[in-house]
Specification:
By secondary structure, this protein is mostly beta strands. 3% of the residues lie in helices and 31% in strands. The two termini are 27 Å apart.
Length: 647
């Protein structure tokens, strides 16, 4: 036990003492007849400290109990916050003050261990003594009006709890949450806020694609050097057939043992890992990671900074209530969300945390609540008591309509509570489509508006650009009014869009004539090869179709499709394993509990009032197996406000 140290208050005037003594005497007399409810009783000790930890003259706040003790009594704790009227409100401290704490503070300042501080703006004492503000990488913490926040370094933008460069970050390219698609045989890149492609050798960038000029019939030998319809690209040159050891996959002559676009079979592409490159060896897919990244499943991660793989694959950082656990140099570290301060290993709101009410380490007595930094016995009429705090069930997204009812939010959106009912709002740049938030400017399944699917035309692929569907034609085909046509054989576009052949004529080699050449078939005036024409595959009029993000193919008179843009074939769909929550890192690998998929890894983010323990979200204020922190088991006891009782 040690004597509490505190700044001496200014001596009270004779008149004010007389009024206090008179009122105390009156209340003492009244107390013998009826219960006196005034705050000024005959015994002032034991009453609650105010929001700043202050008491009436002659008393000092015990921070361990948040109660006023008579000046001179021995109490536990680290020292009071000053007397009523404000710490340092009188620069001439009374006689007998302890020299170690005899400080003269300016109005609006509070005495903390470090000296005189302004709780409204001090990031080391934000809202209360010892409440430390934290910040993510490339940011500085700050304290705004008693609430923690952070400022990103110059040139960076705050996206959630991270500071990123909108001009260079492929996950936030040009705007928060706008991720660049990963091209096949390359990685997503962002240059000056516009998505680009970073290709792996021997692939080269042609527009936003990574192509192999040795086999791509649209870029055979170089970008935009397309082979004619019916021809193939073999070893960088257009030819009538592939070399003997190569397979014909839609006009591309490839080695099925090494081709990442056709690994083990035509159309069987290898998914692109974030931070690495897909590899096909012996007809099986694997990954090659960049620099010091390590392969973890289908992803390449930085074990020094990856929150889900911190120091080792699968070793995720347990999160804290109202904060997140960040990986730094392979070790998990705590960073509190904006508006919350760090008290030891906890992120708290000093205005309503019953364990840190008004200051770090100042708990409310059993049965009391914390509201606006003060311990109270009951909540105001419009609020409800939820785990030691007063909450507005009509608008609190973590206690919506009832205590503990947390509103979910999809990727690209934030949870809201409206009139006690859960809802969500999409972030800027995203459109609400049912229960999802999507980028309608680039989503081929919701292009411009919800449900608007861009169909893949025969002999081409579809894409969504600036909210409008566009067609991208395969090598040798020309886009005419949204359709991909072979101007060498199409009788309605013979030699160019809109040039129609006369009645009884056919189109052969871009010219109208009376009969098709040997080896080709007349399909409604078009002279085609039924073995490889995706508009007439195996028979006239038998057009091949493909799902979104895919190209229809015709090989040996049979239809198939190849996934594009870094997507992976899962059943009859092409998905992005880096972002698809149902196929996160591979086909059928669904993220639990509606978690988002980021860089091929499920990103389990818990809501306010919850922490992540072994990839599960728990409420540490009441969870007896994780009471206060992960792994703290109360055994046969109970968990009350994060403290085990009766263990």
């Amino acid at each position: 036990m040690s004597k509490r140290q505190h700044p001496q208050p200014r001596p009270a005037s004779r008149e004010s003492l007389g009024r206090a003594v008179g009122a105390a005497a009156f209340c003492w007399l009244a107390a013998t007849l009826l219960a006196c409810s005034s705050d000024l009783t005959s015994e002032l000790g034991g009453r609650a400290c105010d929001a700043q930890g202050r008491c009436l003259p002659g008393y000092v706040c015990d921070r361990d109990t948040n109660r006023c003790e008579r000046d001179g009594d021995e109490v536990d704790g680290s020292g009071g916050e000053g007397a009523l009227g404000g710490p340092g409100s009188d620069p001439e401290a009374g006689a007998g003050s302890n020299p170690a704490e005899d400080r003269s503070c300016e109005p609006g300042e509070t005495v903390c261990e470090a000296g005189c501080v302004v709780l409204a703006s001090d990031p080391d004492n934000c809202g209360g003594c010892g409440a430390t503000c934290a910040a993510p990488a490339n940011a500085e913490p700050r304290c705004d009006a008693h609430r923690c926040a952070f400022s990103c370094e110059s040139g960076l933008t705050a996206c959630g709890s991270s500071c990123v460069s909108l001009g260079e970050d492929p996950n936030h390219c040009g705007a928060c949450g706008r991720a660049c698609p990963s091209p096949t045989n390359g990685a997503a890149a962002c240059k000056n806020g516009e998505c680009a492609a970073r290709c792996a050798a021997p692939f080269v960038a042609c527009g936003d694609e990574c192509v192999d000029p040795a086999s791509d019939p649209a870029h055979c030998g170089g970008c935009a050097q397309a082979c004619a319809v019916g021809a193939v690209c073999s070893r960088g040159a257009c030819s009538s057939s592939c070399d003997a050891e190569l397979a014909n996959c839609g006009g591309a002559c490839v080695d099925l043992d090494t081709s990442t676009a056709h690994c083990g079979g035509c159309g069987e592409g290898c998914p692109n890992p974030s931070g690495g490159t897909a590899v096909c060896a012996g007809g099986s897919c694997s990954v090659r990671c960049d620099g010091e990244r390590t392969p973890c499943g289908a992803a390449c991660v930085d074990l020094a900074r990856d929150d889900a793989n911190c120091g080792a694959c699968g070793q995720s950082c347990d999160s804290a209530t109202n904060g997140q656990s960040l990986c730094s140099n392979g070790t998990c570290a705590l960073a509190c969300d904006p508006g919350f301060a760090r008290c030891g290993d906890a992120c708290v709101d000093l205005t309503r945390d019953a364990g840190h009410c008004g200051a770090c380490g100042r708990p409310c007595p059993a049965g009391e609540l914390c509201s606006e930094g003060r311990c109270i016995t009951s909540c105001p009429a419009e609020l409800e008591a939820c785990e030691g705090a007063c909450r507005d069930l009509a608008s609190d997204a973590t206690n919506c309509g009832a205590c503990g009812t947390r509103c979910p939010a999809p990727t690209g959106g934030r949870a809201v509570c409206q009139a006690g009912a859960c809802n969500f709002e999409c972030n800027p740049g995203f459109t609400r489509c049912g229960e999802r938030c999507l980028d309608a400017s680039s989503d081929p399944t919701n292009c411009g508006t919800c449900g608007e699917v861009c169909p893949a035309p025969a002999n081409g692929t579809s894409a969504c650009q600036a909210g409008a569907c566009v067609a991208r034609c395969r090598a040798g085909y020309t886009e005419c009014n949204g359709a991909c046509v072979d101007a060498n054989s199409d009788a309605r576009n013979c030699g160019g869009c809109g040039i129609a052949c006369g009645s009884g004529e056919v189109c052969q080699s871009g010219e109208c004539t009376l009969a098709c050449a040997p080896g080709t078939n007349d399909c409604g005036g078009a002279c085609v090869h039924l073995s490889q024409d995706s508009s007439h595959c195996g028979a006239c009029g038998a057009a091949c179709t493909a799902p979104a993000r895919a190209t229809p193919l015709c090989s040996a008179g049979a239809c198939s499709f190849a996934c594009q843009g870094g997507t992976l074939r899962c059943g009859s769909a092409c998905v992005d394993p880096n972002t698809d929550a149902l196929h996160c890192g591979g086909c059928g690998l669904a993220c639990p509990g509606g978690a988002a998929c980021r860089a091929g890894v499920c990103d389990i983010r818990c809501g306010l009032g919850e922490i992540r323990c072994k990839n599960q979200c728990v409420r540490p204020l009441s969870d007896k197996q994780n009471c206060g922190t992960c792994g703290n088991n109360c055994m046969s006891g109970t968990c009350v406000f994060g403290v085990c009782i009766g263990r």
